[in-house]
Amino acid sequence: MKTFILHLLLISVLSFSAVGQTDSTSSYIVLKNATIIDAISDFGKKGTLLIQEDKIAAIDYSHSLTLPKGAITYDLEGKFIIPGLIDAHVHITHGTLKEAQAHLQTAVQQGITGVRDMGGDGRMLTLLQKNMKIGEDVGPDVFFSTIIAGPEFFEQDPRPQEVAKGAKAGEVSWLRAITSESDLRQVVAEAKGMGATAIKVYLNVDKDLFKQVSDEAKRQGLKVWSHGVVPPTKAMDITNGGADVMSHAGHLVQYEFVKGDIRGRHSFESQEELQAYRKKLNDIAWDENTKEVKQLFTAMNKNNSILDATLFIYTFGLDDAGEGEEIDSTKYLVGMKTVKTAYQYSVKIGAGSDHMISEDGTINLHKELELLTTVGLTNIDALRAATIVNAEGLGEEKNIGTIEKGKLANLVVLNNNPLEDISHTKNIKYVFKRGKQIE
Ligand SMILES: [Zn+2]
Fold first, then answer.
1. What is the rounded radius of gyration, in angstroms, for the C-alpha atoms of the chain?
2. I need a labelling partner for 325 at 20 to 30 A (CA). Which of 24, 37, 143, 158 fits?
3. Cβ distance 329 to 318 under 8 Å?
């Protein structure tokens, strides 16, 4: 039956091109003899992929596919094909436009076909989003959010003004201060109009306001991304308030033990006072059987909130500490434990680096995948974290994230099997984005 349908499909596409309506020689690509790891099955299977223009037109595991004449054919004997990788936590606009373009080009060459920007200059992101989609720039497809926070954040933190140059952070559509008086319909409509996929709730938003802005975002068809903890609001209220993705494993759990509101970094008189508060939280002992932990991860699982772990960012400074230098590895260790426990409760884990590219050009999502496997994710689940789970977080699971007929041909061809060793995601032979081989 399957074969019959494939034949029908090919007959129809071939006759279509035969009458001269498409350029039949350049619109087909055949990837044959590779092991296809589609991210649906737990295993890879040897087969042939047919790409027509920007989409996967057929997948054949039974050698029964009649290949279109003139198709560009790659014999990939001994190679492995995975879905294009998505980095679910990047900030790409902290430099110039030229730098962002160069960084994104490196990223796609290293297998990243989609990025989720978690806060930057909306004007630049809108431009990059368009250019990546139409092929004017070479890089991953760009998805981004508008940052939503209480006015205190924009008044007290210098970072947002960096990406609002020429205007005022908190008053522009990509960096929006809200209070209970705000016209949330308008705030969300402006984010949507700019091309944002989601709102990102960052800081100083209370539980009721979180729920209101989240409901309004969903009503207008946007996703709700959030930090896992948004002082004064705790993770439990974030997931129950409708968060689709919650970022940063490092401090997710501990705040659940605080009675009442939790304190954000701007509510302290001094750095010492803040450090003491955090130390007290980190000293709380918990494991997977602790009531608060159980409740939180059960709720995240039920609400389908994805945990954007960002383990890589916690490794900063751990490797290059000088001798005798004291490095605070607390967040890293707590983060590892948190992801491990969340995974035990079947919370969906997404892969985000929070630092897409290092100065030497290394793309850090590959390292994030290694870290996820060290806390217990199977290799296939680590791959899913960077593909289908991240696609769900973007609301793009129908278009990307697995290797399936009809989805965009975003594919990475690897020289070695990532199911044997996850670090093989770095060992790349070819990358295809929207059906085009990346040079
Ligand atoms: Zn970030």
1. 23
2. 158
3. yes
Residue 352 CA to ligand 1 centre (angstroms)? 9
What is the Å distance from ligand 1's center to 202 Cα?
10
Q: Which domains does the chain have, with CATH numbers?
A: 2-78 (2.30.40), 84-401 (3.20.20.140)
From the CA of 275, how far away is ligand 1's center (Å)? 20
pLDDT tens column, 187-239? 999 999 999 999 999 989 999 999 999 999 999 999 999 999 999 999 999 99
**Between helices 330-344 and 291-303, what is the axis angle to 10°?**
60
Please tell me whether the peptide bond between 232 and the residue prior to it is cis, using omega within 30 degrees of 0.
Answer: yes
Burial class (CB in 10 A: 0-12, 13-18, 19+), 381: middle
| Residues, CB within 5 angstroms of ligand 1 (ion) | 118, 354
pLDDT of residue 3: 45
Residue with tokens 């806060």: 119
Q: What's the CA gap between 108 and 114, in Å, rounded? A: 8
Using the mean position of ligand 1's atoms as its centre, give its distance from the Cα of residue 409 in Å: 28
Q: What pLDDT score was predicted for residue 5?
A: 47
CA of 194 to the centre of ligand 1 (A): 20
- Quick check: 309 and 339 in contact, CB under 8 A? yes
Q: Is 225 left (phi over 0), alpha (psi -120 to 50) or beta?
A: beta
The span from the CA of 264 to the CA of 208, in Å, is 17
In this structure, what token pair is assigned to residue 107?
């990223």
CB 217 within 8 A of CB 224: yes
What is the per-residue pLDDT for 319?
Answer: 56
Looking at residue 338, what is its pLDDT? 97
Q: How many Å lie between the centroid of ligand 1 and the Cα of residue 227?
A: 9
Between the CA of 226 and the centroid of ligand 1 the distance, in Å, is 10
**What are the beta bridge partners of residue 142?**
115
CA of 32 to the centre of ligand 1 (A): 39
Residue burial 39-49, b: 16+ Cβ < 10 Å; e: rest:
beeeebeebbb
> Residue 117 C-alpha to ligand 1 middle, in angstroms?
8
- For 88, the token pair is 């679910």
Q: For the chain, which residues score pLDDT lower than 50? A: 1-25, 321
Q: What is the pLDDT, as a whole number, of residue 279?
A: 87
- The predicted pLDDT at position 13 comes to 43
Strand partners, 350: 308
